[in-house]
């Protein structure tokens, strides 16, 4: 199988945004998609930079319904350098490749991670199609090169996930709480000995019994 080595492999991580200030540049449909994705992570603050004439109806709706600070102008370097609340993360979604390059260079000069829509080589990170159900989070990555395929794979995974996966996760969490942090090896033994379906069907009584058996 041939391999496209244009982009190096990426490190897939989960990033909590609750204490972060996120900047979105642009007001098009891609910006709207970014806002939807970001809101789900509940960042501390979202600022959007885009002239009123370039804001889509969906972006306007997000600004009105959520606490998004809107600066109605084109991007300027001062927005990154002269601010009382430093930017932690940038999403650029402008329809101008030259401006995208300028924004990316400015962000890197200030060590601010940036995602540039439709230009993967300018991205420090990218968003992945995800599926969430409680504590279950599934993400698909094509290393920023084939988002359409990633979305198809996401749908395939959703359609084939066992219905009781979230129940199994919740029960493993309860087992972990009962065993304590110091007993991860015991937790591994328990989860290795049971199928996903068996983990999902555990009752409170089963969890107490397993905790007593394996911890003794």
From TrEMBL:
A molecular-function term among this protein's GO annotations: ferrochelatase activity
Species assigned in the record: Gigaspora rosea
GO biological process: siroheme biosynthetic process
Annotated ranges, domain Siroheme synthase central: 133-157
The EC number(s) this enzyme carries: 1.3.1.76
Record key words, sorted: NAD, Oxidoreductase, Porphyrin biosynthesis
Pathway as given in its UniProt record: Porphyrin-containing compound metabolism; siroheme biosynthesis; sirohydrochlorin from precorrin-2: step 1/1
Reactions listed under catalytic activity: precorrin-2 + NAD(+) = sirohydrochlorin + NADH + 2 H(+)
Protein name: precorrin-2 dehydrogenase
Top-level lineage group: Eukaryota
Residues that span the membrane, as ranges: none
